[in-house]
């Protein structure tokens, strides 16, 4: 059985990143390497809120980014997920934005994803938050996904 990876908004966004700063180019390259060479090794899922986020605004390569998500299965946003979001926010695990990081973490946890793949290293792929998330998820009897960047899921040579 393949491990399950939840894709949040930053992953498809970075696939077509256009900024020229070295760190942005590196993230784009690592995202493409994972997506093109490793994605098929996993059961990849995302959610309607990710598609909603990607659909907002006017930015370069928007149609290509949305097309990239065409073959990705979507996990549903169920009422228990919204309850989990509230608990995350009330306990200071995630910022007070019910349709942002807390929602992605709640979806990945509720749907028992092995990984939450992200470039959000402030609130999600952040070792300083991992223990707090793990403790709170244990109290909630939830699975805790590893919150990682694409670089961490690219096998070494």
Structure description:
The chain has helices at residues 10-15, 22-37, 48-55, 62-68, 79-90, 101-110, 127-139; strands spanning 4-7, 43-46, 73-74, 115-117, 146-148. It has 157 residues and is α/β, with parallel strands linked by helices. It has one domain (4-153): 5'-nuclease (Rossmann fold, 3-Layer(aba) Sandwich). Strands 3-2-1-4-5 form a five-stranded parallel sheet. Helix 7 (127-139) links the parallel strand 4 and strand 5. The chain starts with a strand and ends in a 9-residue tail after the last strand.
Summed up:
With 157 residues, the protein is an alpha/beta fold. Helix content is 46%, strand content 10%.
Record keyword descriptors for this entry.
157 residues; alpha/beta; Rossmann fold; 5-stranded parallel beta sheet; 5 strands; 10% strand; globular
Give the secondary structure arrangement, pairings included.
Layout: E1 4-7, H1 10-15, H2 22-37, E2 43-46, H3 48-55, H4 62-68, E3 73-74, H5 79-90, H6 101-110, E4 115-117, H7 127-139, E5 146-148
Parallel strand pairs: 1-2, 1-4, 2-3, 4-5
As a percent range, the share of strand residues is 5-15%
- The CATH architecture comes to 3-Layer(aba) Sandwich
CATH third-level topology? Rossmann fold
What share of the residues lie within helices? 40-55%
Domain unit count? 1
User: How many strand units?
Assistant: 5
- Per DSSP, the total helix count is 7
Characterize the overall form. Answer: globular
Give the CATH class.
Alpha Beta
Secondary structure category: alpha/beta
Estimated radius of gyration: 15 Å
Q: Mind telling me the CATH superfamily name?
A: 5'-nuclease
Low-confidence stretches: none
On the 0 to 100 scale, the average pLDDT is 93
| N-to-C SSE string, H for helix and E for strand | EHHEHHEHHEHE
- The span between the termini is 23 Å
Largest sheet: 5 strands, parallel
Main-sheet strand order equals 3-2-1-4-5
